[in-house]
Design brief:
Shape: elongated
Helix content: 25-40%
Radius of gyration: 50 Å
Structural class: alpha+beta
CATH class of the largest domain: Mainly Beta
Distance between the termini: 126 Å
Number of helices: 4
Largest sheet: 6 strands, mixed
């Protein structure tokens, strides 16, 4: 019969070891959570204290802005005006004699040269007039030759007293009369030749023909108000434009330094360059009703981008400003009185309000005469949040670089 040890009789069985390990893990987890909560509360309290201290001192968080650098470049100075394209030469071709048009020798829109045949008027009547004048001239020349022979004979007889002085003088007067008649006949022949030549109508200039105004078979007269066709010279071509009278002094001053001034012709959107020419003439008087002065520029127009009657934006380039300070146009702000200023970013990342003098704003860029130096940092965008002394932070690193120039007008392809 088996027996148990005395001290083990009736004693409870020991708890399993796995149950004690779980309780220990729970205790450790609770300790970690309590420590984390305490750290978070401490950090939030410190941040709130820092924010409260900053607010108490009147400091604001940095304002996000777009920053740029004042660039240095050569900038052309322009005077802008509205212009109209005009043909360099325009001719309405008309008949110079009366008659029936028997041939039209040109096509509408054709390029013609000087003396190219355009039309033919029936020449038969004028050939008849020429033949009549030539016949009369031949008759008078024959009479003149006979009168001269008699005069020579009378001269010999007068020396021998075969004729009187009166007879000799009468014969001499007849010779003079017939010489004058022959000269008159020659003039009539020349006139008839001219009238006959006018029956062939030729181009007086190089240019392009327009729409035909008279068809073959019609009767035309020299007194007709309507011509046969209008010819315009397209290259070179002219642009007439106006500027304010206050610009006259600047133009005259620049002409003393440079006899040739460049003029650009742009489309209505100011983006497409239609041609580049030279200033040809300044009108000799100012229009007192509008206070403007007219100017004329000549363009080669080899690509025929300019057309008579076309409206263009004319830009007279006065000069080129060398190594000038340039910023994007959005950098310049206007004060209540209209004065221009910019926000300049200092080394401590705060801004100051700097008054500036703007020479011109062109293609999205402002040319600064006074107030900025190349290399300075300025606020390009986000100024509405700023005031003097505000702390800023550039939001875009690319925007904080040198401001790139705005694209200029595009040259049109022929």
């Amino acid at each position: 019969m088996n027996t148990l040890p005395p001290d083990s009789a009736g004693a409870p069985a020991p708890a399993p070891r796995s149950s004690a390990g779980k309780w220990l893990g729970y205790l450790l987890l609770c300790g970690l959570l309590a420590a984390g909560a305490g750290w978070w509360l401490h950090h939030q309290g410190a941040a709130a204290a820092t924010k409260s201290a900053a607010s108490a001192r009147g400091e604001m968080p940095p304002v996000p802005v777009v920053a740029g650098v004042v660039a240095q470049k050569d900038v052309p100075l322009f005077l802008d005006g509205l212009g109209t394209v005009q043909a360099f030469n325009t001719v309405t071709v008309r008949a110079r004699v009366d008659g029936q048009v028997v041939k039209v020798a040109f096509s509408e829109g054709q390029d013609v040269k000087v003396d190219d045949e355009l039309a033919q008027i029936d020449p038969a009547p004028y050939r008849a007039v020429l033949a009549q004048a030539q016949a009369k001239q031949g008759q008078d020349e024959a009479q003149l030759a006979n009168a001269r022979t008699d005069l020579n004979r009378y001269r010999e007889l007068l020396a021998k007293e075969g004729v009187t002085q009166q007879v000799f003088d009468t014969q001499k007067s007849l010779v003079n009369q017939l010489e004058a008649a022959v000269k008159s006949d020659q003039a009539l022949v020349d006139s008839a030749n001219v009238q006959l030549a006018y029956t062939t109508i030729r181009s007086p200039i190089d240019g392009r023909t327009g729409i035909r105004l008279v068809d073959s078979g019609n009767i035309v007269r020299a007194t007709d108000a309507t011509g046969l066709v209008v010819i315009t010279q397209l290259h070179p071509i002219s642009v007439i434009f106006t500027l304010r009278e206050a610009s006259l002094g600047k133009i005259q001053k620049q002409l003393l330094a440079s006899p040739e001034l460049t003029v650009l012709a742009l489309g209505g959107d100011n983006a497409e360059l239609l041609g580049e020419g030279k200033l040809a003439v300044i009108d000799n008087q100012i229009d007192i009703t509008t206070g403007t002065i007219k100017l004329k520029a000549t363009f080669p127009n080899t690509d025929l981008r300019l057309w008579p009657g076309q409206f263009v934006n004319a830009r007279l380039r006065l000069s080129v400003r060398q190594a000038s300070a340039v910023v994007p146009a959005s950098t310049v702000q206007r004060g209540p009185e209209g004065s221009a200023f910019v926000f300049v970013i200092k080394d401590d990342q705060t801004v100051e309000i700097r008054p500036v003098k703007v020479a011109q704003i062109e293609q999205g860029e402002a040319l600064i005469d006074e107030g900025l130096r190349p290399g300075e940092h300025v606020v390009v965008d986000g100024q509405y949040k700023l005031q003097k002394g505000s702390r800023v932070k550039a939001t875009d690193a690319a925007a904080a670089g040198t401001a790139s120039p705005a694209p200029g007008p595009k040259k049109a392809k022929p």
